[in-house]
Amino acid sequence: MDGSGRRDIDDFRSERDLSRRRAFEARSRAGRARLLARAIPGLPLDGDPPETRARIPSAGEIFPSVLRDIEASASSSFADAVSGRWNEIFPGIRARPSRMAGNILFLAVRSSPALFALRPRLPEIRRKLAAFPGAPQGLDVKLEVRP
């Protein structure tokens, strides 16, 4: 929080997003400094000068992370099995498995009140899912609002 009592937007970002944003801001500051050093007073500046453009990553830099994400989603057979039998395992629960990230299974609910009402049942859901065949070690269950 800053002195005004407002939360800083960085409190809501992941560490990866924050480091990427800080690196972008540093590159942008350096580019603006180079641009202003060679600017001629009275002449207009380019709307998208090369000094401030973001570098476009090559395909070779992107593919490893994409392949890791694909492997992670392909290895979520546990999540597929759970979502296929969700109504049988948890009748009456108004949440659905939405995605699996590592050992975390995210359950989607439609609203914040539904999320708040389901929070007390998370330990029970976690115990039942951990006993399910093929459950990963250290399974965690989290809720997210998805209308």
Q: What is the rounded Rg? A: 23 Å
**Structural class by SSE content:** alpha+beta
Q: Biggest sheet, strands in spatial order?
A: 1-2-3
The biggest beta sheet is recorded as: 3 strands, mixed
**Subunit arrangement of the protein:** single chain
The separation of the N and C termini measures: 29 Å
Compute the number of strand runs.
Answer: 3
Mean pLDDT over the residues: 80
* CA-based shape: elongated
Low-confidence stretches: none
What level of helicity do the residues show? 40-55%
- Number of alpha- plus pi-helical segments: 6
**Fraction in beta strands:** 5-15%
Order of helices and strands: HHHHEEHHE
Task: Walk me through the structure.
The longest helix is centred in the first third of the chain and has 24 residues, at 15-38. The protein is built from 6 helices and 3 strands, in the order ααααββααβ. It has a 3-stranded mixed β-sheet. The chain has helices spanning 15-38, 59-74, 77-84, 86-89, 112-118, 122-130; strands at residues 96-101, 104-109, 140-145. The protein is elongated, with a radius of gyration of 23 Å. The model has no long low-confidence stretch (mean pLDDT 80). By secondary structure, it is an alpha+beta fold. 7% of the residues are buried. A hairpin with a 2-residue loop joins strand 1 (96-101) and strand 2.
Can you tag this structure with a few keywords?
alpha+beta; 6 helices; single chain; 12% strand; 147 residues; three-stranded mixed sheet; 3 strands
